[in-house]
Design goal:
Blueprint (H helix, E strand, L loop, with lengths): L1 E5 L6 H11 L5 E3 L8 H9 L4 E3 L4 H8 L5 E4 L9 H4 L3 E7 L8 H4 L2 E4 L11 E6 L7 H12 L5 E10 L5 E7 L5 E5 L15 E7 L3 H10 L25 E5 L6 H12 L5 E4 L10 H10 L8 H8 L11 H17 L2 H8 L5 E3 L2 E3 L17 H9 L5 E4 L6 E5 L3 E6 L8 E6 L4 E5 L13 E7 L5 E6 L3 H10 L4 H9 L17
Parallel strand pairs: 1-4, 1-5, 2-3, 2-4, 5-6, 12-13, 15-16, 16-20
Antiparallel strand pairs: 7-11, 8-9, 8-11, 9-10, 12-21, 14-15, 17-20, 18-19, 21-22
Helix pairs in contact: 10-12, 14-15
Length: 521
């Protein structure tokens, strides 16, 4: 038996079919034509009844083969009274209309073999807007999703009569959200799906909204802003004092120098989400030069990424009070001041307070994370920095591996077979002695380069993946649409040269003649 179910928007067609399927034999067919790439109802039915064959965009020949077997089949139609399907004309079927009380005299009665009381609906079909969007691969944190859903259903984006969607949450759950304006509140139902806890979920999720006067652009943009990169589940309500157990083996990703380049940051986060990464660290310089300082800070905060304070982060908090030698030319000084003044005006009090609270260093077991060096956020540790200075900087941290940024050029430097010469002062009866003392273990400096301001000759963002077990570091490059950031730089009124240098992978600002010099503040 083929049953065709139709009715106004939100009348309860899918719910009625689910009730019928619960009483049907094991085999059944469910067809929902016209939903394209956003089969919300089909996914809901499939998760509730895995044995049901689902059709929403398959060839008719395949559907006919299933119908020929005589199993119960349910066709769920749209709400615009467009209920005719050439496929059904030659097949025996019954027509069920679910309508609310106010629709008792509507055209559904003329079409239907049987009318069933459904939910009320006040939607004017002639002026209705139907908006759908796939969200597959996107993950949301529950508080933000709840806020968006409340705003959506309470009129922030227009008059919504019906809204439904399938959303993936950060803990791996998938939920069906359902709103009908004639019913109280919304229904939140967890779907019978395995939790997807590694990387982005490779299964359907999406949203559908029906209403009048909808701001479709604003609706579409909001879920994008809520986009969440899943991290491993926390062991408690907050990160423990130690971010992973002593001796724990893990892969970490290290970012640095994002410089208000949201496009680059999102591209790197997307790639990290596809890698076997257990934890992310950031070495600072979240702001400066680029067009989106508040958005970058909000993204880092949203993901709870441990971050140390960079030189730009410090300058925005404390002001530009470095000595004149920071600028090798008046042109460089002018551009630097323009960028600082613009960023200083742009950042919100919340962003400024977050930057002010960032620590200068982060320490985890035998790893240390800094922006420039352990001495200062403004000091450059270059690949050719004196071996003695480089070794001293690592030793002062008590770590074996020092992660830094600031230079915007990634590298890995091993300080192998190094020696320190110690001078021991003895009592006057014994002459002073000098003894070379070998290091007990290999020391290394790993520079993560720059996410948002590359200086290695290409515009690609760079970051590092480090394995704490093998102690291997992988320098990675990520291509992204840097033209979007360049356009935003020009639109925001920042110096045009910044956009050109970004597109070339060159420096935004010239360095001082002596890059190892640390300005007195």
């Amino acid at each position: 038996m083929i049953t065709v179910v139709a009715g106004p928007c939100g009348a309860g067609k899918t719910t009625w079919i689910l009730q019928e399927l619960a009483q049907a034999p094991t085999a059944a067919v469910y067809v929902t034509p016209g939903t394209g790439t956003v089969p919300i109802d089909a996914t809901r039915v499939a998760t509730r009844f895995p044995q049901v064959e689902i059709f929403h965009h398959q060839p008719e020949t395949e559907l006919l083969r299933h119908l020929a077997d005589g199993v119960p089949a349910y066709f769920e139609m749209g709400f615009q009274l467009e209920t005719d399907m050439p496929l059904l004309e030659a097949l025996p079927h019954r027509r069920i209309a679910l309508v609310g009380e106010e629709h008792q005299d509507a055209g559904w009665q003329l079409w239907a073999d049987q009318v069933i009381r459904g939910n009320q609906s006040t939607l004017d079909v002639k002026s209705a807007q139907l908006w759908r969007a796939p969200l597959s691969g996107q993950v949301f944190d529950p508080p933000s999703l709840d806020t968006f859903w409340q705003e959506l259903t309470q009129g922030a984006y227009g008059e919504v009569h019906r809204a439904k969607g399938i959303f993936e949450l950060a803990d791996g759950q998938a939920f069906h959200l359902d709103f009908v304006n004639s019913l109280p509140g919304s229904a939140y139902t967890e779907l019978n799906l395995p939790r997807w806890v590694q990387g982005r979920p490779n299964r359907f999720s999406g949203i559908e909204v029906v209403g009048q006067g909808l701001d479709e652009g604003a609706i579409a943009a909001t879920p994008q802003r809520l986009l969440f990169i899943r991290l491993p589940p926390r062991r408690s309500s907050g990160y423990p004092e130690r971010l992973y157990p002593p001796g724990g083996r893990m892969n970490i990703a290290v970012l640095s120098c994002i410089h208000s380049n949201l496009e680059a940051l999102e591209a790197v986060l997307r790639e990290i989400d596809q890698q076997p990464v257990d934890r992310i660290y950031c070495l600072g310089d979240l702001v400066g030069y680029g067009p989106y300082p508040n958005e970058v800070v909000a993204r880092i905060r949203e993901l709870d990424i441990p971050t140390c304070q960079g030189c730009w982060d410090e300058d925005i908090v404390d002001g530009l009070n470095a000595c004149d030698c920071s600028y090798p030319s008046l042109l460089a000084e002018t551009r630097g001041h323009l960028a600082h003044e613009w960023t200083n005006r742009e950042v919100t009090p919340e962003t400024r307070a977050y930057l002010a609270a960032l620590p200068l260093t982060l320490q985890q077991d035998n790893l240390c994370f800094v922006h420039g060096s352990p001495h200062s956020q403004h000091e450059y540790l270059l690949p050719d920095t004196s071996a003695f200075i480089a070794l001293e900087r690592v030793l002062t941290t008590g770590a074996d591996t020092l992660f830094c940024g600031h230079t915007h050029v990634p590298y890995v430097r091993h300080l192998e077979n190094s020696h320190l010469t110690l001078k021991a002062v003895h009592p006057a009866t014994q002459p002073p002695s000098h003894s070379p003392t070998p290091l007990s273990s290999l020391k290394r400096i790993i520079n993560a380069g720059s996410v948002g301001e590359p200086r290695h000759g290409r515009p690609n963002a760079t970051y590092v993946i480090y394995n704490t077990d093998t102690q291997q570091a992988e320098l990675r490059e990520v291509e992204y649409d840097y033209a979007k950031t360049c356009a935003a730089i020009l639109e925001k009124g920042l110096p045009a040269i910044f956009a050109w240098r970004l597109s070339q992978g060159l420096e935004y600002a010239e360095k001082a003649d002596d890059p190892t010099h640390v300005c007195e503040r």
